[in-house]
Amino acid sequence: MDRQAVEQIVEAVGGKENIAAATHCVTRLRFALKDEGKVDKEKLENIDLVKGSFSANGQYQVVIGQGLVDKVYAEMVALTGIGEASKEEIKDAAAQNLNPLQRAIKTLADIFIPILPAIVTAGLLMGINNILTGKDIFFEGQAFIDVYTGWADFASIINLIANTAFVFLPGLIGWSAVNKFGGSPLLGIVLGLMLVHPDLLNAWGYGAAKEIPTWNLFGLTVEKVGYQGQVLPVLLASYVLAKMEIFLRKRIPDAFQLLTVAPIALLLTGFLSFILIGPITFAIGNLITDGVVGIFDAVPAIGGLIYGGLYAPLVITGMHHTFLAVDLQLIGTIGGTFLWPMVALSNIAQGSAAFAMMFAEKDNEKLKGLSLTSAISAWLGITEPAMFGVNLRYKYPFIAAIIGSAIAGIVITLRGVMAPSIGVGGLPAFLSIFTEFWGVFFIGMGIALVVPFVLTFIMAKTRKKKEV
Ligand SMILES: OC[C@H]1O[C@H](O[C@H]2O[C@H](CO)[C@@H](O)[C@H](O)[C@H]2O)[C@H](O)[C@@H](O)[C@@H]1O
């Protein structure tokens, strides 16, 4: 690790004294600065390690890149004495600068980011299962497991491992949400799993059920159904649980806390969840899903154009993970998401625009190297190095990528491309797309690869001609 470069970063953001707190995500250092006016942006962006920097969501974000950012952060912690505890502090410090809507969006993103690895893994494994069980991939009219029947159970076990994260999704969300709201994560897991308890009628069987089982609470009838695939019930229940736990902890003497806090909080939240929170949020969740599906059904091209085009600008703000909630809700209710395939194509488009810069700016050695490595990263699902390191610096590659991504978005949305899960973005994404949509998805990939490349190259040449 280049210690001197890390020192330069600290200096450029206004010195150790200007850092209220600092943390990092997959690719960026995130600072809560006392005074953002003290940042020397030019000096900062001239440091080799730095791919770009900007202020968003009350944080000053410095793009370093996947893998490296952890090391830079560790070095900075050693250098400045900023403790690991500052991870929470920075969120609080930065949240002070946000309005309530921004804060709600950020909260949602913060809840879904920690569960992303489990979901992406599920998507990748579902992809393997797709290949083994999808018809017409290796043999006409038949799946691989139809011809090699011995592989059927192998595929079945892969599928079981893959969909575990989805079957118990409320458990994962409960853990992350209660943690975010300041309660005990373990209680969050219990709460989430309670909502998908096997004694309840599985939500996925609700529509087909001849009779809905009920509880009778002194005359009040409560449906005995689970909340598989639902996002809102567990989110709101987690909020209630965490706040109740905090309330009780403050009022109950230490000696009685173990005996009282968790049982009371869980019991009350449990009853509230089945009687009120669950049924109400279930209905709201379905309304939101119907709304999103309705828009994409009515005007698919516009939906594709907007989401395909605007996803990359959303990544700039760091708020893109908020949409994971919508993806998961779609997967839980209609069995797949038509939004995430566009995310994957947007990743590819950013990579291609950056890649084109390698040829357009042949004489710029530093840019050439960065173009290639950041393009590869984007093609594998991480776009910040390409966006901040190359495309946004020159602006036109970013615009070219957005155009390519929007066109690809329109094409795949018009054909209703869906994924059973969120998977690894970029080029490997096809694995996580339902196999019947592979053909049109490959066309979308082709557009996302070629259009940004060609447009960037043409724009670069046109600009050069004008300069002469
Ligand atoms: O901010 C990091 C990256 O976040 C997104 O990608 C990650 O989440 C995707 C699901 O939303 C997943 O498919 C991908 O494999 C993950 O890397 C975003 O799409 C990227 O542009 C961004 O770099």
**Biggest sheet strand line-up:** 1-2-4-3
The count of helical stretches stands at 19
Question: Compounds present?
Answer: the ligand OC[C@H]1O[C@H](O[C@H]2O[C@H](CO)[C@@H](O)[C@H](O)[C@H]2O)[C@H](O)[C@@H](O)[C@@H]1O
Could you give the order of the helices and strands? HEEHEEHHHHEEHHHHEEHHHHHHHHH
Distance between the termini: 41 Å
- Approximate helicity band: 55-70%
Instruction: Give the overall pLDDT as a whole number.
Output: 91
Structural class: alpha+beta
Which stretches are poorly predicted, pLDDT < 50 over at least 5 residues? none
Beta-strand percent range: 5-15%
The radius of gyration is 24 Å
Question: Main attributes?
Answer:
four-stranded antiparallel beta sheet, two-stranded antiparallel sheet, globular, Gyrase A, domain 2, 468 residues, alpha+beta, transmembrane, binds the ligand OC[C@H]1O[C@H](O[C@H]2O[C@H](CO)[C@@H](O)[C@H](O)[C@H]2O)[C@H](O)[C@@H](O)[C@@H]1O, sugar transport, protein-N(PI)-phosphohistidine-sugar phosphotransferase activity, PTS system, PTrfase_EIIB_Cys, single chain
Structure overview:
One of its GO terms (biological process) is phosphoenolpyruvate-dependent sugar phosphotransferase system. Residues 3-86 form the PTS EIIB type-1 domain. This is PTS system. The active site is at residue 25. Helix 9 runs antiparallel to helix 10 and helix 16 (365-379) packs across helix 17 (384-394). Helices cover 65% and strands 8% of the residues. The protein has a four-stranded antiparallel β-sheet. It has a two-stranded antiparallel sheet with strand order 5-6. The radius of gyration is 24 Å and the shape is globular. The relative contact order is 0.10. Strand 3 and strand 4 form a beta hairpin. The model has no long low-confidence stretch (mean pLDDT 91). It has three domains: 3-97, 2-Layer Sandwich (Gyrase A, domain 2), CATH 3.30.1360.60; 155-288, no CATH class; 299-465. It has 19 helices and eight strands. The chain is of the alpha+beta class and 468 residues long. The ligand OC[C@H]1O[C@H](O[C@H]2O[C@H](CO)[C@@H](O)[C@H](O)[C@H]2O)[C@H](O)[C@@H](O)[C@@H]1O binds at residues 26, 116, 120, 315, 320, 324, 343, 347, 381-384, 422, 424-425.
